[in-house]
Every structure is written in C-alpha cells, then in structure tokens.
Amino acid sequence: MNIILLAPPAAGKGTQASLLTKKYGFKHISTGELLRKSLEANDAVSLEIKETMQAGKLVSDAIILQLIEKEFLVAEQGIILDGFPRNKTQALKYAELLTSLGQEIDYVFYLAVPKEVAMERIFGRRTCPSCGKIYNSRALENKEKCMDCNTALVKREDDTEETFDLRYETYIKETSPLIAFYQEQGLLYEIDASLSTEEVFASIEKVLSKESE
Ligand code: AMP
Fold first, then answer.
1. Which residues contact ligand 1 via a Cβ below 6 A?
2. What CA–CA distance (Å, rounded) separates 90 from 92?
3. Rg of the chain over CA atoms, in angstroms?
C-alpha cells in the first residue's frame, strides 16, 4: 500500500501520518523529518540544507530522491509519504521508482486547509526532536516534554510567521500543481483538513475502508 499525503505546510500531514502508522502499521516517511535529522551531521551539505529550509524553499531533488530511495530499500510494509513528492520532478521520479519495484500509488490524500488556519496551527506546534512526535497547542496542556520519550519539546525553527509565508508561497508554486496531476490519474481524495485531528482521521479512514470493501 502506497499513500501520499499532499498538503500546504502545517495542514496536519505529520499528525495524520503518525495516526495511520499506528493503526495500520505503515512505514511513515517524512522527508522534512529526515532532513532535520540530517542536520545533526553539521557539515557543509547540512548547512546548505538548513539554509534552504530556513528560507522556506525546497531542498534539491537529488538529495531528496537519495533519501527516498534509501528508505524504500528497507521498507517492507505499506508506505505513507509525508512531504514527498513536493514538485513535478519528484512525482515523476517517484512513479519511475514504483514502476521499477512493480508497485503503484494507491491513494493521494489532499489535506485541504485555508492558509489562515494552517498559519494559526504552526504557532502552537511543538515537536519532539528525538522521536518526531508532533503536539498541537490543545494536546500540549502545559506539558513541554514528549509523552513517549520524555525529551524536552522544541518549536521548529521554520515555524515562524515569516518562514511560513515563504513555505506557503513555495507550496503554491511548486507543490499545488500536483493536485491536478494526481486528480487526472484518478488517485486524489480531497479531505477537509480544517476540521479536528480526529475528524480528519475519520475522513481518511472512511476512504480506506470503503475502497477495501
Ligand atoms: P516539512 O517537515 O514537510 O514541513 O518540511 C520542512 C522543510 O523541509 C520544507 O519547507 C523544505 O525546505 C524541506 N523539504 C521537506 N520535504 C521536501 C521535499 N520533498 N523536497 C524538497 N524539500 C523538502
């Protein structure tokens, strides 16, 4: 099973991917998370990646595709992609990769949310730098430690108003054309992601259960 979550920044891709992983045992691949982990290397490449992320732009396709291929080599179960593909080149390369593995995309969930709602969400968002778990302001309840691994939570460096605007612009220009791209292939399912986490998850589950009947 191959699932893609397509959405503007801070629409809840990571949260929904984690819920799907928990329930169905999919492998969750977040390119943003892989990139954030790669920054620990603190070398010339990671500095360049950091600058690109801070500027709200896309990291080079070559780096991203290398990360994805590496993850696919060790993935045996279903895969849920969170943050990839993010432009047409990546989408075409991903299609090639799947064809070479004799696989195909099963669902593309487009999490639709107005810009203002997404923006509001990033201000309350905290993440665990160790396990990647995401907390929204409602779930935080004044706890600043990860409930799973007890690590102190952090605010993502690119979760500022200024970087959000740049990330959103990049999304509109580079990523949003993928909505029509996957719609034309009959793979797109639009989900109203302005609802609560639970309601969004229920909408996704409804599609998954209907299709497997
Ligand atoms: P995310 O965690 O998905 O919000 O991604 C954070 C940042 O990582 C993005 O703003 C990009 O700079 C970079 N990034 C994540 N995924 C990709 C991708 N598939 N292609 C290029 N850059 C990416």
1. 9, 31-32, 35, 52-53, 56-59, 64, 83-84, 86, 90, 167
2. 5
3. 17
Residue 72 has pLDDT above 90, yes or no: no
Largest CA distance in the chain: 50
Based on the residue annotation, tell me whether 167 is a catalytic residue of this protein. yes
Q: Residue 171 gets which letter from DSSP?
A: I
Three-state DSSP class for residue 174:
helix
CA of 57 to the centre of ligand 1 (A): 8
Look up residue 103 and give its two tokens. 């696989």
Dist. CA 203–CA 197, nearest whole Å: 10
Per residue in 89-135, pLDDT (tens digit) is 999 999 999 999 889 999 999 999 999 999 888 888 888 888 888 88
Cα-based distances in Å from 176 to 22, 35, 56, 82, 179: 28, 21, 15, 15, 6
Please tell me whether residue 4 adopts helix, strand or coil conformation.
strand
Residue type, 70: K
Element (H, E) at 33: helix 31-38
Q: Helix, strand, coil proportions of the chain in percent (round to 5)?
A: 55, 15, 30
Phi and psi, residue 48, nearest 5°:
-65, -40
Q: How much is the pTM?
A: 0.90
